[in-house]
Amino acid sequence: MTRLSISKILPIAFGLGIVLAGIWVWSWARSHQTGSGQTLPVLGEVQNFTLLERSGKPLSDADLRGSIWIADFIFTSCPGPCPRMSARMSQLQTALAPAEEVRLVSFTVDPERDTPEVLSRYAERYEALPGKWFFLTGDKSDIYDFARASLNLSVREDPGNAHFIHSTQFVLIDKTGRIRGYYDSMDNMSLGQLVVDIERLRQEG
C-alpha cells in the first residue's frame, strides 16, 4: 500500500467536502432542469487582455472564449490568504473534473517577481493541470487595470510591508466573457454555490 505523508493527507482531507459537494452537484444538476428563474445575472464584461502564461506562451481573453472560467488574484510569496486560495482552487479543479469546458485562471499581482518559472514551481505545488489551470503574469499596470476596471476587484501595493493587498474573491466568467458571479474563496458554502452556478452556465449552452 502506498504511504501518504501528512503534507499529502491534510490537503486531501481539507478538500474532501468540496469534492463530495461537487459530485453531488453533478448528480443533482443532471436530474433537474434549470428554470428561467435561476438564470445568473450578467454583472459585467471582461475586457481584452493578453498576458504571459507559466508555460511561457501568451494567453488572451480570446483564448478563453468558449470556456467557463474562474479567476483569482494571488502572488507566490504571499504570507496571507493566497496559499488558502490556491488550495481551494486545487480542490475546485478536482471537483470540476467532469466539466471539460471549465478553466481556472490565477493572475499574479507581483509580476516583477512572479516570472513564468516562478509561477510554474508554484503551480506544481498545487498540482495544477496544464491547459486546465492557467497562471498569468505580465505588465503590472495591465494586470492591475484589468483587476480594477474589468473585474471590479481591489488590488494595491503596500510598500511599507513589501506586500500586496488584493481581493480574495473568485470570479465566475461565462463562455462569452461575461461576469456572472463573485464568491468568497474562504467560505465553503460560497464555493458550493460556485459549483452549482457553473452547472447553470453549462446548461445555458
What are its keywords?
alpha+beta; Glutaredoxin; eight-stranded mixed sheet; two-stranded antiparallel ribbon
Structure explained in plain terms:
The chain is an alpha+beta fold and 205 residues long. It has a single domain, classed as Glutaredoxin (3-Layer(aba) Sandwich), CATH 3.40.30. 40% of the residues lie in helices and 23% in strands. It has six helices and ten strands, in the order αβββαβαβαβαββββα. The strands form two sheets. Strands 1-10-9-4-5-6-2-3 form an eight-stranded mixed sheet, with helices on both faces. Strands 7-8 form a two-stranded antiparallel sheet. α1 crosses α3 and α1 crosses α6. The longest helix is centred in the first third of the chain and has 25 residues. 37% of the residues are buried. The N terminus is likely disordered.
SSE blueprint and pairings:
Blueprint: H1 6-30, E1 44-45, E2 50-53, E3 58-60, H2 61-64, E4 68-74, H3 82-95, E5 102-108, H4 116-125, E6 133-137, H5 140-150, E7 155-158, E8 163-166, E9 169-173, E10 178-184, H6 188-204
Parallel strand pairs: 4-5, 5-6
Antiparallel strand pairs: 1-10, 2-3, 2-6, 4-9, 7-8, 9-10
Helix pairs in contact: 1-3, 1-6
Strand order of the largest sheet: 1-10-9-4-5-6-2-3
- How big a fraction of the residues is strand? 15-25%
As for the number of domains, it is 1
Major sheet, described briefly? 8 strands, mixed
| Main structural class | alpha+beta
CATH class: Alpha Beta
Number of helical elements: 6
**CA-to-CA gap between the ends?**
44 Å
CATH superfamily: Glutaredoxin
From N to C, what is the helix and strand string?
HEEEHEHEHEHEEEEH
